[in-house]
Amino acid sequence: MGCRAPAEPPAELSSSTIDIQTAGDPKETPPPELLPGETVVKEGKAAILFPNANEVFYNPVQEFNRDLTCAVITEFARDLLAERGVKVVVPGEKEKVLVSLTEEDPEVDAEADLTTEKKNGDEESAVVATVGEKCELGLRVLEGLAASGLRSVRFALEVPGLLSITANDFSAKAAALIARNAQYNGVSHLLQASCKDASMLMYEKRGKKERYDVIDLDPYGSPSHFLDAAVQAVSEGGLLCITCTDMAVMAGNSGETCYSKYGSVSIKAKYCHEMALRIILHSLDQRAGVYQRYIQPLLSVSVDFYIRVFVRVFTGQATVKNSASKQALVYNCVGCGSFHLQRMGRRTINGKHMKYSAASGPPVGTECEHCGQRHQLGGPLWAEPIHDSQFVHKVLSAVAGNPSRFGTAKRIEGMLSVVTEELDDVPLYYTVDSLSSTIHCNTPPLLKFRSALLHAGHRVSISHACKNAIKTDAPSAAIWDIMRCWEKMNPVKREKLSVTSPAFKILSTEPSLEACFTAREDANPQSRKRHLTRFQENPHAFWGPKARAKAGGGISTNLQDKRKKFQNKRKITDSSPLKNFPCKRFREVGLGISTIHTHNTHTSIVLCLLQISLFLVFFVVLHLCFMFSI
């Protein structure tokens, strides 16, 4: 069914519209019956047929990801379709109406009524797009790696203003399941199943008239080999929704692998989750720049075991020149964790023209000024804001005003509330526990530490990526001065500190300011005052990434089975009694004793053989002496 104007009578619908409506009506096309071994998985408004054999990948933990994506695409469609004269209507959403609170003046009430009537008249003349309907002026959506098609089916049932949805998967079994799920949910008029390589499908749609308005990529692992095609296949101002689950690579465990995939070196640091977001944004901007395109991040979140970014892509040769100045290298001290950012480029305004030049650096010396240790070099990474505050407020307002729309609405509200409180112009963050661990002192309460920064004249906020994070524009010297002041109130035993340790070097310097730890009202953000759900507790054991589905059917070995398989590789044959002890260190000591005992046994055997050999030699010498004496 196309986008409709509410004032039109049903008789004026065209025959093609009626045909499309009939084809997509679940009453006319009966849903497919369940096959043996299939179950129905319900999420949101979708009901998905899913094989018990797990031939197609499905992860129920990603419900938050799918809910957030539906909310973001809805607001994106609302903004984009408003330019085309289409009004988006979401079920259960209350319209914001401005009314006059004046009761004494009837003329004011009459004027308000005229304004309301005019507004309603304009809305009746506008084209309306609702969920489940095909909008001729709507968005073209591609889910490149659809698996069971759950996300695409939810788009069709929950996101208004869509023209078409292409749910693609390289697995033939997955593509067949997508088609059945589309028919089962009655959205075949919107959703088409596709069985192609995702990159080749996007390369085929690089033409300006064939591009997708929204491209969603949620791979099992890294999306790096899809990014080049994605930045070309998305329309002008279109939306890219990218998920990365290879957090071990992006969080610093394999910096060289991260560079080969994303063109950036990741390092192990407390801010690794935000750094992962900035690495994927850098990679997207770099690949878009090849085609004279650039990105505008709308929302970037680090959630559970993955990261998710929503960016718009535009074309502009002049704006692409700013790309170098948007990237930065990060110098991270291995001793105290202090970091400094170095922009890759520099731009200055010269009258009406923009002048570009190389950046000067480095911003640090050969050794850290605070602890004397060396620096690690990471990046390049995206150094500009990772959110669009205005857009995030729109999504937050829509979710909070319609809490029954999503199953994870409370967490979305909590997460986006923290995002809106972040300092958008301050990359990366410190953590209070790591600062305290460096100088071996008690950890100050977050409220007191944030208050001390505010008293010192600096800005400070929390971060959605880490519950103990401190995002601040204060230099590292000011942060360590505050920690020195805290240590004076909670002294450590200096005599136990090594002379070469970072703690000794930092505490040997007197603070240059007098920190005030009196709690301030503005140091406690609203998300904490309202006790919003920001960081979800683990729902159950082993709830993270599931095992990858096999292309030929079936499922790969369970992760827990792999863990059991690769454990217990100790040399000792029987270490079962040692496993009963709760303390890991005691087990290690016990294993060490067992190893020493085995080693002593071998030594005893060698000594016995040596004694026997000496006895034989002595006997032979004695016998020879006796013979010569005769």
UniProtKB/TrEMBL annotation:
One of its GO terms (molecular function) is tRNA binding. Coiled coil: none annotated. Keywords: Membrane, Methyltransferase, RNA-binding, S-adenosyl-L-methionine, Transferase, Transmembrane, Transmembrane helix, tRNA processing, tRNA-binding. Residues 1-33 are annotated as: Disordered. The keyword Nucleotide-binding does not apply. It catalyses: guanosine(26) in tRNA + 2 S-adenosyl-L-methionine = N(2)-dimethylguanosine(26) in tRNA + 2 S-adenosyl-L-homocysteine + 2 H(+). The chain crosses the membrane at residues 604-628. InterPro entries: SAM-dependent_MTases_sf, Trm1, tRNA_met_Trm1_C. Signal peptide: none annotated. GO terms for biological process: tRNA N2-guanine methylation. It holds the Pfam family TRM. PANTHER family: N 2 ,N 2 -DIMETHYLGUANOSINE TRNA METHYLTRANSFERASE, TRNA (GUANINE(26)-N(2))-DIMETHYLTRANSFERASE. NCBIfam families: TRM1 (TIGR00308). Belongs to the class I-like SAM-binding methyltransferase superfamily. Trm1 family. This is tRNA (guanine(26)-N(2))-dimethyltransferase.
